[in-house]
Each structure stands twice: as structure tokens, then as C-alpha cells.
Fold each of these.
Amino acid sequence: MTEENTQGAAAAQEEANPQGQQFALQRVYLKDMSFEAPMGVKAFMKEWKPQVDQELNTKVAKVDETNYEVTLTLTVTVKLGEETAFLVEVQQGGLFHVSGLPEQAMPQIFNTACPQILFPYAREAIDNVVVKGSFPALMLPPVNFDALFAQAVQQAKAQQQAQGAAEAPAEQ
């Protein structure tokens, strides 16, 4: 009976995933975190009208044939006027199992699906450390990684076209 159940589960998995394509999160972990409040106590004596700047970066490292470490770096700088009230940087790591996917699909997986999974964890870590720094809670808005990836691809194509036009010999 157990053999039938495992065979049935394997068959159901094959039907749902006919080409053997697999994408699975293995582990999420906080890789690095930094918090700075360069204004010190002066930040609490000023009117709280913050200007928030957010930077995102994704880095991928192949661990073995099917496992990849994806690190989402999220840097948030909050200024009061010209002075930095606080700066926080989080490197949220994830170990992802990826197999059976076409090579051309990998950049999109690593730059959209993986960061989409990691972002809520990084956002929560930032909010927690900001509150522990005695600043008001900072709930960052969601990020559309698909749109960012599409924009980056478009910019790369435009840059290639511009370089191609610059390298083409001038007609006389």
C-alpha cells in the first residue's frame, strides 16, 4: 500500500511537472545586516519629515549543479534635510534548488522569482532594526521585480543598439 502511495505521488508530480523542471526554496537566512545612526540623539530632536531612499541589488552564486545562493541586498537611507538620520543595509540570502529549466530562463528566475521570495524577509529585518534604533516603524512598499527586470533588459538592449550604431562604419 505504501508503495502504491509513493508511486501515485510521483506520478502526480510528473503530471504537474512533465519536463522535470524544479524550482524550490531550500533555506532563507540573514546573511549580513548593518545599522548606522550618524546623527545620534539629534535625529530625535528634529521634526520627523524623512526622505527615504531605497536601493536593491541581487547577486547569484552557484553552489553545485542544482543549488544556487541568491543574495538580495537592500539598502535604505533615511535623511532629515541634508543629514542622514539612519542607514540600514540587509543582505537576505536564500538557497534555491533549480533544475530542468532552460538556460535562457535562469536570469529571469534569479532576478524576479528569487528576490520576490526574499524581499518580505529583508523588509521585516529592516523594520525590526529601525524600531530597535528607536525610530518610527519603516514598512517599505512591495517591489515589482518583474517590472524592474523588464526595464533592465530594455536598457541593456538600448545600450547594445547604441554601441552597435557607434561601432558601425560611417557611410560616405
Note: The two ends are 81 Å apart (CA to CA).
Amino acid sequence: MDIPTSPDACANQLLARLSASEYSNLYPHLEWTPCALKSTFYQRDQPIDHVYFPLSGEHSVLAIMENGTAVEVGTVGNEGFSPVDILTGSEQSLETVTCQIAGEALKMPIAPFMAAIEGNTGLRNLVFRYLRAYMAQVSQSVACNRLHTIEERFAKWLLMNHDRVPGDEIHITQEFLADMLGVHRPSVSLIARQFQQLGLIRYSRGLVTILDRPGIEDVSCECYGVVRKQFERALGIKAG
């Protein structure tokens, strides 16, 4: 697939906010790449070779325990890039990052990326503003997982991902939903069935179709709105 030749044509909202001249400097270093479901971009403690700017889909940042249990600690869609660890000076990934929802991305080698954020550049300004919003997302997620019901968190997850996909269909495995919510797989089926009976979604074989977004917003906890405001304040964009 052709790489967008101008920021106006780019679906990644960080790259889309660059000036035409700065984007043209990055253009030779950008490579289009498909992001398949469950593919791994980075593994904990492994070297970071590229950064990814999602065009569609969603990347999931996972903390993986010694027994293999995974907990989602952050998400990245077309509003941002991964891994944000690189902005802290780390040359190795702090967590494992996988593809939660299939899509596409532009990837860029580390060396030209680091060169592009040297000094007072547009990209540097954008990625550090994104970092602040991302940290707010992670902090809110900690409180959400502790204080809110599974139903509220499922509704929040639906809204976050609806923001990041074209149309109303979200492809997701039951296994990943269970990991994300911290419940057993039968509980996912039960919650999805409840939402379906309420006319909020249609759920079948890993495909969630959003039917009533305002209704889902009514069920969701406050965290979706709190995080969205942080991204709007930092970047003027909406994100989960």
C-alpha cells in the first residue's frame, strides 16, 4: 500500500498534525505495515528497533506475569504511537505490546525518529504532549480496574475501540476480552449477552457490532469521558 505523501492524507493523528515540510522529512523513513491480530510489536526487556504510528486498529500494552497471565495497562490507536518508553530514554521495551484489533500502521526506525525529536521540532512537541495524555490514560485505568464494575468497564472498552475503527464493527477474540477485563471467558459471554439483550450491541463469533452508542455511554463508567478530555486537552483529538 502507498504511504500517504502529505500529513493531510495521513490517518495517524500525530503525523497528520505535522507541517508539510516536517512530514516530508519523515516520509523516506516511513514504512507501511499490516498489523495482524495477536501479532507482537515489542517484548518486555527486548531492544526497541522501530516506532509504530497506527493508522487503524489498536495496540495493547501488556504487563505479563511469571505464570503467563497478562494484564492490559494501556492502549494505543491512531491518536498516538508506540512505544512511549522511547521518550524516557529507554532502549528496551518496558512492557509487551501486541495487536488487539487488526489494522495498519506506519513504522519508522529508531535512529531517524530520535533525530526527528531533537531540538524544538513539531514531532517532539506532539509526542511529548501525547505522552502526557497516555500517562493520564494509564493512571485512570488503574483506578477504573479497582473501582468499577465489569459491565462499566466493558462499556468503556466498547467506546474506546469504537473511536478507533471505521464503522461500527469491532473484531476481538473472547480470550482477549477476558484478559482485558480480568475475568474468565464464560463471564465475557454473559456480559456480551446482557448488552445484546439490551439492544446495545450484536455479538457473534468474535465480532461486536455497535447498535446503540448513546446507550453504551450511559452504561460506561466516568473513565471514558475523563481520558477523552485529557487527549482533547493535550492534542485536540478524541481517543479512548
Note: Residues 122-147 form the longest helix (26 residues).
Amino acid sequence: MRDALAASRTSLMSLPGLGTVLAAKVLGHIGDISRFPTEHHFASYVGSAPLDASSGKNVRHRLNTGGNRALNSALHIIAICQIRDGGRGQAYYLRKIAEGKTPAEARRALKRRLSNVVYRIMKRDQRTQLATAA
């Protein structure tokens, strides 16, 4: 797997909580990142985009049970590692808890944020590879 990741020239493993196995799983399931026009489309595919469950004046969101469950599981592992190990992920999680969110809601918000980070890293890697090929 290390050789395959080195050949893909990805910088995904720079993300805390994302090791060799998870990076290979993410790359294998996503393939070409250009098939997702925005990070919102990517989040929907991964299953980290919350679904609106609002009614009247009550604004609520609920868990998205759709999407690619393997990628959602990978995001969950990354989120749990970041919450445990400290750093920016833990600070974001604790800030959401301080805002009054439940631990599950705060973890869900972190997973959504992490899907944006993964998308941006993969887009940046793609631009770098295109620039070096030209």
C-alpha cells in the first residue's frame, strides 16, 4: 500500500489521524476527485452532509444515512483520532460542545469539516500533478 500511495503522490497522509491504510481506502473509493464539482457534492457522496429536518421555526439537522459508508467510516476514524490526540480537530470538537451541541452532533460537524479538508487536499494534489505533467 505504501508503494501505491507513493506512486499516487498524494499528500493525504499529512492530515492527522489519516494513515496508510485509510489513505489507500479513501483514494480507492474516490478515484478521480474531479468528478465532484464542489466540496458539497463530495460531502453528500461521503455521507457527511447533514440532512435538513427543520419544521416551522425549529431548525434542525439529522444524520445522513446515505452515501458511501466505507468513506464515512474512514472519516469517523479520522475524527475520533483527532479528538483523542489533540490539535485543531479536538479544538473544533470542544468548541462545538461549548456551543451546546451534543457529542454526537459535534463529532458529525467535525466529520463534515474533515470531508472538506480531504476534498481540498485531493484537489490540490490533482492541480500539482497537472502542473508537473505540463
Note: The chain has a mean pLDDT of 90.
